Amino acid sequence: MILASACRPPLITLLFVLLAGCGQCHDGSDDELLAAIKRQMDSVPEPPVDLRQIPKELRCTYCNAIASTFTIALEAKSKALPRSRQGLMNEEEYIHALQDACEKPVRPGELEALPAEARHLTWLCRDILQTLGEEDIWELFRKHAQVPAVHLCSKKLRLCPKDRQRKRGDGAKSDL
Description:
By secondary structure, this protein is mainly α. Helices cover 57% and strands 0% of the residues. The protein is built from 8 helices and no strands. It has helices at 2-6, 10-20, 30-43, 56-80, 91-101, 117-132, 134-144, 149-156. The protein starts with a helix and ends in a 20-residue tail after the last helix.
């Protein structure tokens, strides 16, 4: 048997030696070792997300989900206030409500649970807050009693295509 192992390539021999010694390099049970490895793996941060990593066909869907997330968070915070203050959140309250909303954004229902979906939604939510600012999102909510996705996603961020309901010069008169 010694002759056979001497003829093997060095990498395979090294692997065999490492595997044969497995379990002897730590004091404690294998469960403790696995728990320690899991803790180490959990401490490694996820790589940062970039808008280019989110497929173009999903950006609008994600933005609409985030608009819903903001609306739900601000409605819940507003309802939690005393009656005399409903709709009159101070700056600190709406900032915390919006930032907390980005921790677990609403997932779009029609999409399958993609592995990176939660990371993408969380990143996009935070990016929207950073780009527009909490105050602008709060003003949209106050003005429309919701955070309208069409304002947030099409006009402000351009993550969704604009609806082209009418063309210029089509003879239609303005509603003004």
